[in-house]
Design goal:
The protein has one helix and five strands. A hairpin with a 4-residue loop joins β2 and β3. The two termini are 29 Å apart.
């Protein structure tokens, strides 16, 4: 008997009420600048590549605490921001 998680998926996806974009800088540079007026992160050069766009959420660290960190994680580093992005499972 397979475990049906469709109900859980609907609840979690209901929390994803923002439209997010995930960009990658192929050159590995971190030269983006935050526009304080619009809240947009602007690239100093047109050097980013869109990796994914869709529904997601931005939440403070630790909320919601869906899963605990795994002991087998590759790296556990302190966050450089006070927020984290929640993406659907089908995001790359």
């Amino acid at each position: 008997m397979a475990l049906d998680l469709s109900g859980v998926r609907r609840v979690v996806e209901g929390m994803l009420d923002d439209q997010l974009e995930v960009w990658r800088d192929p050159g590995g540079r971190t030269d983006d600048v935050l526009d304080e007026d619009t809240g947009e992160l602007k690239s100093a050069e047109a050097d980013g590549a869109l990796v994914w766009a869709g529904s997601g959420a931005i939440v403070p660290l630790g909320q919601p605490a869906i899963t605990a960190p795994l002991d087998s994680s590759v790296a556990v580093l302190p966050a450089a921001t006070a927020y984290q992005a929640l993406l659907p499972l089908d995001a790359p």
